[in-house]
Amino acid sequence: MFTNLEHLGLAVHDLPAATALYTTLLGQPPYKTEHVESEGVDTVFFRVGGSKIELLAGTTPDSAITKFLSKKPQGIHHVAFEVADIRAEMARLRAEGFVLLNEEPKYGADNKLVCFVHPKSAAGVLVELCQSISAPDHE
C-alpha cells in the first residue's frame, strides 16, 4: 500500500546552481547530498513538510538522468511514493498489469529500497516506489 508522497525527483543539468536556487526558493538548505554510484547520479535532498524534493544530476554518459536530459528539458523526472513492503507492492502492481523497470528492489539514495514503474503503464509518469531501510548496509 502506498503510504505517502515520498518525494518529487527533479533532473537538473547543473547541480550546484539548482541547489542554490532551491535553497533560496525553499528558504532552507538541503539536508543531504549523496552520490549513487550504481545509478551514476548525484542527489541533493530538501525537506518540504512531510515530503521531499530530490535534485538529480547524471555523473556518467549512460546514467538514466543524463539520457533523460539529452531528450527533455530539466524538470520533473519522477514521482516517488513510500510503501511499507516494496516486494508486496511490486507483486500487486505486476498482477494489476503494470510494467516494472526492475525485477528486484535496488538500493537507492536516502536509505531506500526502490523500484520504478514504467511510464508507459502509468499515464506517462515515471513512478518510484520507496521503502525505508534502517542503514545503508549496501555500501
TrEMBL record:
GO terms for molecular function: metal ion binding; methylmalonyl-CoA epimerase activity. It comes from the Bacteria. Its EC number is 5.1.99.1. InterPro entries: Glyas_Bleomycin-R_OHBP_Dase (IPR029068), MeMalonyl-CoA_epimerase (IPR017515), MMCE/EMCE_epimerase (IPR051785), VOC_core (IPR037523). PROSITE patterns: VOC (PS51819). Residues 4-132 form the VOC domain. One of its GO terms (biological process) is L-methylmalonyl-CoA metabolic process. Keywords: Isomerase, Metal-binding. Belongs to the methylmalonyl-CoA epimerase family. This is Methylmalonyl-CoA epimerase.
